[in-house]
Amino acid sequence: AQLALERDYETQREMETRYRVLMEVSRDPVLMVSMSTGRITDINPAAAQLLGGTRADLLGSAVAQEFEGRRRGELLDNLATMAIAEGSAAIELMARRSQKRMFLTPTLFRAAGERLLLCQLDTSEREALGADELG
Amino acid sequence: AQLALERDYETQREMETRYRVLMEVSRDPVLMVSMSTGRITDINPAAAQLLGGTRADLLGSAVAQEFEGRRRGELLDNLATMAIAEGSAAIELMARRSQKRMFLTPTLFRAAGERLLLCQLDTSEREALGADELG
């Protein structure tokens, strides 16, 4: 059982590496938000560029603060509601730092007992909605 | 120490979930290839669609078999060489199932002692090379 646990542990470590490499190279701008704190827990270079900051600037910041005119609870609730609605939906927002308009497509999931929101960013609506067709 | 190990284990499990969700929803077509076997160990829906198969069809298949005119060792060697070269480089190939031309951009990494190749697919050269600018 100990050996099985160790093998399992190795597999998990491999998954972490895969996750980090995938985030780093993905051309799909993506960020992860903790539903309990509303803060950005991870963001890839493509998303940081769109938002107009570095990864270091954006990690740990409140996601609602990164967009114009959105209060924290309101934005999180909207995103969570959209994520569990049928079909894919995107919300249009303006990034505070870059002053760029973009669409957020949210996906809600649970990991290690915590609710996380994966947000994909897009500067065109076509692509934001196109995600559905790829599924 | 046991408690620390358990917390660590929970973190790893969370990373696996993040990895799976990210692969599933990413609009960036991506596949993972084992360098030791040359087989596809993971592929997301966006990449499966471009290659013209389902995830089930493509999982475990030899990556070189999915493209026209490429022998297994040759393709793997080319991709690995490109991955470690400076700057990002893409290789143009035709997918066997879909008969679509596309560019592969490889990233080589090591996880749990195994060498893995992450391949991003693109139907336009502009996007394949654009990846560099986002970094």
UniProtKB/TrEMBL annotation, chains A, B:
**TM annotation in the entry:** none
Name all PAS domain ranges. 15-67
Protein name as annotated: Transcriptional regulator PpsR
The major lineage groups are:
Bacteria, Pseudomonadati, Pseudomonadota, Alphaproteobacteria, Rhodobacterales
Chain's gene name:
ppsR
